[in-house]
Design brief:
Helix content of chain A: 40-55%
CATH topology of chain A: TIM Barrel
Strand order of the largest sheet of chain A: 5-4-3-2-1-9-8-7-6
Number of strands of chain B: 14
Structural class of chain A: alpha/beta
Distance between the termini of chain B: 58 Å
Oligomer: heterodimer
Radius of gyration of chain A: 17 Å
CATH class of chain A: Alpha Beta
Largest sheet of chain B: 6 strands, mixed
Largest interface: A-B, 39 and 33 residues
Number of strands of chain A: 9
Structural class of chain B: alpha/beta
Number of helices of chain B: 16
Shape of chain B: globular
CATH topology of the largest domain in chain B: Rossmann fold
Number of domains of chain A: 1
Strand content of chain A: 5-15%
Amino acid sequence: MKSYRDVFSELSRQNRAALIPFFVVGDPDFDTSLALVKAAIDAGADILELGIPFSDPIADGPTIQKADIRAARSGMNVRRAMEFIRHVKQYRDIPIGLLMYYNLVCHYGKAEFFRDARDAGVNSVLIADMTIDDADEVLGSVRAAGLDSVFMVTPNTSPERMKQIAAQTTGFIYTVSVLGVTGSRDALSDSVEDLVRRLKSLTDVPVCVGFGISKPEHARAVADAGADGAIIGSRIVGMIEAHLDDPGRAIAEVSAFIKQVKTTLCEA
Amino acid sequence: MKHKGRYGNYGGYYVPEVLIPVLEELEEAFDRFRDDPVFVAELSDLSTHYAGRPTPLYHAKRFSEHVGFKVYLKREDLLHGGAHKVNNTLGQGLLAKYMGKSKLIAETGAGQHGLATAMIGALLGMETKIFMGVTDVERQSVNVHKMKLCGAEVVPVEGGTGTLKDAINDALRYWTSHVTDTFYLFGTAAGPHPYPTIVRHFQSCISREARQQFLDQTGRLPDMVVACVGGGSNAIGAFAHFIDDPDVKLIGVEAGGQGVATGRHAASIVAGTPGVLHGARSYLLQDAEGQVMDTESISAGLDYPGVGPEHCYLSDIGRAQYVAADDAEVLETFGLLTRIEGILPALESTHALAYVAGLKGTLGPETIVMVNLSGRGDKDVGIVEQHRPLE
């Protein structure tokens, strides 16, 4: 199974950043969602970030909240998400990061959750509502399952805490570009390039940037600042939402957009 | 953070990383100002002259006669704004001011906490935004109007069932985008640390006063203290100074809605299982997957699927007992208290009264029971009229 290390070292040889699209698993339904993810892989995704729908996603803005509701209504749950991931991995061996809310993990059973996620082909789990302060509640099971850990750094994280977060992180640091929740934004935050540089000066752990990366040039800008990857969520999920009556068109638009980002990231 | 904010296995701060620096700042400010003489003096002055403390402890003789034992009502309903909520909003509002914050946000269910925050926003000259579920905006329109009159902006929240839980989600989201100048004035003894501790601190004046009032008026402590529990702020305030008195029974009454057996209720401790919501581990109403469930109660203020962590702990160690009263019992008791005491209780507080009314004939005549009458029922007259129209 391909690891983050494999991907990041390969990309570093090519001197480019990873393209990481985000999807809510099962949005708007199992089959369309799977077709979207496959199209994203074909269009050039290097890593996938996948969310399992939760009733109260406090770190997410309206676009992803609505996707959570669509996916939940279509019958998506943790067990079916594992099955979904198995399908994805059968299609292509691509690293997968899960984005979770803690209650779902606790309810499933922590050890079982991480073990089943690993068995399905997941590389890491980021719990949106858990920080390094409580990491001891999960890290034992994460390591036992052979998963990588991913934690967030935000623009208001102190340098001292950045170091502590880096020390607990084996996968990549999920760097939040703005003070706020997920969502498309017209402009990239002014502070994000500076944030990436500060972080890179403190740690060798790969740094990927998310929240508000909505355009190819945003992805390129964070890559140029030294980021190892760009995570694009709400912009893509918004395309799915815009074409609920025409899944074929949603797939075509998502695919075209990812290709465009990929091209921008690959330009010399 | 200096402390974990745990009550046994419950509480903590399960939040996105972006909130850690602000919660740290809040914890530090609370530690610094809670016993600061200048802060304490200003809060005490406002509590007395603005909010109306101390509140009376009233021996409700006709209600006592009806049930066959002595019932005393702690009259938080007489406070400015009509509920205990002002104890907390004054405390946290002042804390915000001492921290140099210029804006307040809050969530609200029944509108009582929103109103109490709007009042304090006006009093302290701070811009105030209140997040309120669309369902609640509709069923508590009078409070919405009052908040607006106080100059607050009311933000209707559509997600989920449009109730308190969704309002908290959106207030948390807004806060993450405005952490620098905005103080989140959390309304109940739940949410991430340090809120449960802060809210308990500012609400514990209820039991501090009541304890002394019982000694003065009856020469002894009550046998039982009863309070309604949604998130649990009035209840923890009513319990706090009695927790170390093992002979005082503590009873929290949750919202039984259509009846606990129907699944349509908001009785988190009575019928829930441990889970993590809004930054804390507590008993939670959730489905087999861990998705948080919709709740139902006639009282918007109790319509919440989680509950304060200290209540979960008190329940587990057996120090407090939690029960549920359903909507029908509540409406019955609302009519009763109004008729024989001339007091309109808030539907939230009526849950506590309904439990006590249900004890009729089971306790000796010398038994003393305190009910925390956490709010007044003027806001609920329309709802009561809907269910029990006057002939």
